[in-house]
Amino acid sequence: MIRNYFKIAYRNLLNNKVYSLINIFGLAIGMAVTIMIFLWIQDEVNFNRSFENHDQIAQVYQSQTFNGQVGTGPAIPRPLEFLFRESYSSNFDKLAMSSWTNSKYLKYEDTNISRSGNYIQEEGLEIFEPNIIKGTEKGLEEVNAIMISESTAKALFGNNDPVGKILKVNSVDDMLVTAVYEDFPQNTTLKDVHFLMPWKHYANSQEWIKNARDQWGNNSFQLFVKLPENLSMETVTANILDSKKKANKEAIQFDTRIFLLPMDDWHLRSNFENGIQTGGRIENVWLFGIIGTFVLFLACINFMNLSTARSEKRALEVGIRKAIGSSKGQLIKQFLSESLVVTMIGFLIAIGLVLIFLSTFNELASKEISFPWSSPEFWFYSLLFIIVTAILAGGYPALYLSSFNPVRVLKGTFNSGRFSALPRKVLVVTQFTVSVVLIIGTLVVMSQIEFSKNRPVGYNKGGLIQIPVMSSDFQGKSDLMRNQFINSGGAIEMATSMSPTTEVWSNRSGYEWEGKPEDFQEDFAWTEVSYEYVETLGMKIIMGRDFSRDFSTDSNAVIINRTAMEYMGMTDPIGKYLTDDDEENPEPPKQIIGVVEDVIIQSPYSPVKQQLYVFDRFNNVNYYNVRLNPKNSVSENLALIENTFKQQFPNLPFKYDFIDEEYAKKFATEERIASLAQIFTVLAIFISCLGLFGLTSFVAERRTKEIGVRKVLGATVTNLWLLLSKDFVSLVLISLIIAIPIAYYFMQGWLQKFSYRTDISLWIFMATAVGTLIITLITVSFQSIKAALANPVNSLRTE
Amino acid sequence: MITIDNLEKFYRTEEVQTVALNKLSFQVKEGEFVAIMGPSGCGKSTLLNILGLLDDPDGGSFVFNGTEVSGFNERKRANLRKHNIGFVFQSFNLIDELTVFENVELPLIYTGVKTADRKTRVHEVLEKMGIMHRRNHFPQQLSGGQQQRVAVARAVVNNPKLILADEPTGNLDSSNGNEVMDLLTELNEAGTTIIMVTHSEHDAKYSHRIIRMLDGEKVTENVLV
Question: What is the 3-state composition of chain A as percent helix, strand, coil, each rounded to the nearest 5?
Fold first, then answer.
């Protein structure tokens, strides 16, 4: 019996090559998209799951309220660690303070490379359990120890054993390699941690870190914890929620809350809005999950439509089978096995497509997904997927076809009825509605990106590079380097800064100024910069002046941005003072000497934050910002600068970033979404048109005689073309009417998450409507013109 | 074997109701060969569909082999049909995607005969119909006469007690038509009951009895043998 089903299925496929190709390729494309999205979702969902204790690991977060705005983040103060160890130790199995993941120069003999990594407490090794390949499990006991990743070991030592060797870190510290660990997997938060050094080394390395020991207000560190097995995240969060408020009375006014963010949430649910966890990348997982389902559904619709459209041909077969003794159930099984055959062939092609396009997909999605040949889970889901698709695509046709009345069919009076095409029309409308929503969505995402890219950044980001100078070799050489760079002809100006141009590394509060309202809880973005910073970046001064070597008082001067001026309620800020409200050990008051136009440092989608550009009195230099000489080409400039750099620092690698590239990275997430969405949209349209093409050829075939009669009666090709096309065009028009409000609603919602956002302009809808109609007409016309051109004699003779 | 009593069937469209069978009654005994004649639209085909359990009457009784079958559900009808009734259609109604062998095999598959037995039975029947050499051809590759032989072969492969033939020679020339009629006569002589709808007086002469119908009613009944 089954053999008979498959035989019929196979022969039917061969006898109807066009339909079969449309069905199989449509399904294959839909399935390939779904498989890739499945792999992507699996990768996202399994992020950090390779840590054995992922469900017991958490990071300590805190949220604080400034003027009604709740800020939430993982930066915590050092005293919290001591408080936890002293008064809350029963809540934790392990606690580990850590620095942020930062780049360092690692040098062994003549090899000097830059790698990122962390300083972390010894217990961190028991939380994250790096897989030790060589050396000791307790690699952080000694204050001058360093553990390095396998790839770092390879880069520094080749095939030699690194354990016991001394590394020069940032040209200052001699660190003993105690262990080599397997690189953390790509889909973990720790993927960039290529070395681990002892926290105790960090804690005593710099003055500000030492001072931070007792500063509850200095939120500059990370704290990771592992819970005992009998405690849940919720319980511990409840226990530690008010810990900081109890220990530090200042925390009360900021309503400071301490809580745990479970490791399972780090990747997908790390966004907070006003103190409430609002998701994060999980939204993309949902978005692409839905898109994948829709694309597959579109392909299934093709199968349904083409199967039922061809029903008149299959009806006779159904009638005969029923007359001979087939039951309805047997016919349903027969038609389902046909869709199973199509689905299986489609799946095989889909696997082929996935293999071909996986690397492109990885590039677009910035992933490293490999095809899971050996994963039983994948094949199990694939089987399930094939069956579900076969039922989804073949279920309705099977029910429809098997329900034919044999008497009417065999008598030849079979007429599919006035409303038999209605479900098909509904399905076509559904297909195009989904496609149009996708088109509009993609266009809105693209226009939002374009809109934000065109937002004035407030400085000249072209022809500007930054050189990270965190090694102590650079100490005190800023002016020297400035002169040499300019003299080399590769640069026209240079200034230093504490943080990169495109990031805020520090936020400060605790200042008084004239006219500051009572109870105002201020919060400023803070960076420290040198002379000529405004000049180098090309920022625009709207009041006052830049820092100047002519005024010795400028060492206590500050430049503010426009937002800060408005934030402080000042109209004439020049000459006013910001005074430190620390009563015991105040910094000298800072005089405002200039106001600059707002510069986008953080998100191009958000308003610019109130910013203090403070003159760098203590050589807090982390970056050289270099304005390249516009008279030379970029490569000439870079060669000149590198040459100058190497003369001064022969042992240090010359590293630099283009500021415009750094800035462009801010759009990476949205651009990734946009490019993936573009591909899926094109595929959705393609699949829908494939189905439409099949349906038109079916309709043209069925109406051959009518066309012949009309032609004999004098209809022109244009008349016939209009006749055959108008039905489909009107379906697409209905889709547009349904899709536009839906798309508007969803995209309006999507735009809400950007405070700097474009309006959804009318042209998007117009372009979509016109574009969709043109594509429809082209698809439909191919068949309808062919039918209209046919010689009526032939079509009438077939009677 | 068959007793119908006051059988009624109506067809409704939105505006009108047509009477297809109007209180029709007759009997057919086992081993009989009955021809049903009448002008187009007199209800012949409707009658054949009801007798073949493809359709349900709207009134009256239909006793098949001592069982009242009017009001059977589709599953019961299908089951009775596949074991007892074979069909021969005017337009052959072979499945284009199946070969001669596979077309003839189909009823055996639905009655659950084992593969080996199926092969023997199909070969026997094809041999008898003289189309064994064509067993691997598809229907489109055969002449009309050959196609109808295949259809007859398919109708008898299950050894049904009753064969219903709806204008079996309607699409055939006279020599092919005579061959098919001879086949049916042979089957009848071997004990199969045959009810045949026909327009052809020539074909009707092969039967034992002719029932003439008009407007859904029996007009006359001539016994020939």
Answer: 50, 15, 30
Average pLDDT over residues A456-474: 88
Q: Per residue in A163-193, pLDDT tens? A: 999 999 987 889 999 999 999 998 899 999 9
Residues 6+ apart with CB under 8 A from A327: B74, B75, B78, B79
Q: Is the pLDDT of residue A43 over 60?
A: yes
From residue A200, alpha-carbon distances to A97, A141, A203 in Å are 10, 9, 5
Among the partner residues A316, A327, A328, nearest to B93 by beta-carbon distance: A316
Best A324, A402, A410, A415 member to test B by mutation, with max B CBs in 10 Å, is A324
* pLDDT, position A799: 38
3-class DSSP assignment, residue A510 = coil
Whether the CB-CB separation of A465 and A659 falls below 8 Å is answered with yes
Q: A322, B54: Cβ pair inside 8 Å?
A: yes
The residue type found at A102 is N
How far apart, in whole angstroms, are the C-alpha atoms of residue A276 and residue A61?
12
Close Cβ partners of A622 (under 8 Å, ≥ 6 residues apart): A468, A469, A470, A497, A498, A499, A500
Tokens linked to A361: 């997909």
pLDDT for the residue B32:
93
Strand partners, A106: A113, A169
Residue B74 touches chain A, beta carbons under 8 Å: yes
Measured in residues, chain B has a length of 225
CA-based R_g, chain A, Å: 34
Q: Interface of chain A against chain B, CB under 8 Å?
A: 1, 4, 7-8, 11-12, 15, 316-317, 319-328, 330, 406-407, 410-412
Render pLDDT for A508-537 as a digit per residue (tens, 0 to 9).
888 889 888 887 888 899 899 999 999 999
**Portion 164-223 of B in contact with A at CB < 8 A:** none
C-alpha–C-alpha distance, residues A283 and A297, integer Å: 21
The 3-state secondary structure of A735-755 reads HHHHHHHHHHHHHHHHHCCCC
Are the beta carbons of A323 and B95 separated by less than 8 Å?
no
Residue B89 contacts A, CB cutoff 8 Å: yes
Comparing CA positions, the residue from A279, A254, A255 lying closest to residue A267 is A279
Which pair of structure tokens corresponds to residue A225?
Answer: 């914890």
> What's the pLDDT band for A263 if we cut at 50, 70, 90?
very high
Q: Which residues are CB-contacts of A74 (< 8 A; sequence separation ≥ 6)?
A: A59, A60, A61, A222, A261
> Phi and psi of A776, rounded to 5°?
-60, -45
Dist. CA B19–CA A563, nearest whole Å: 90
- Determine the residue of chain A that is closest to B86 in CA distance: A324
DSSP B80-112: HHHHHEEEE-TT----TTS-HHHHHHHHHHHTT
What value of ipTM does the predicted structure carry? 0.77
Q: What is the pTM of this model?
A: 0.80
The CA distance from A462 to A266, in Å, is 34
Q: What is the spatial distance between Cα A784 and Cα A786, in angstroms, rounded to a whole number? A: 5
A429 contacts: CB under 8 Å, gap ≥ 6:
A731, A734, A735, A738
Beta bridge partners of B67: B64
Among A111, A113, A133, A117, residue whose Cα is nearest residue A194: A117
Rounded to the nearest angstrom, the minimum Cα separation between B90 and chain A is 10
Residue A18 or A662, more confident: A662
Q: How far apart are the first and last CA of chain B?
A: 19
Nearest-neighbour CA in chain A from B225: distance (Å): 31
Measured between CB atoms, does B118 come within 8 Å of chain A?
no
User: How far apart, in whole angstroms, are the C-alpha atoms of residue A564 and residue A333?
Assistant: 72
CA dihedral B41, B44, B50, B56 (to 10 degrees): 20
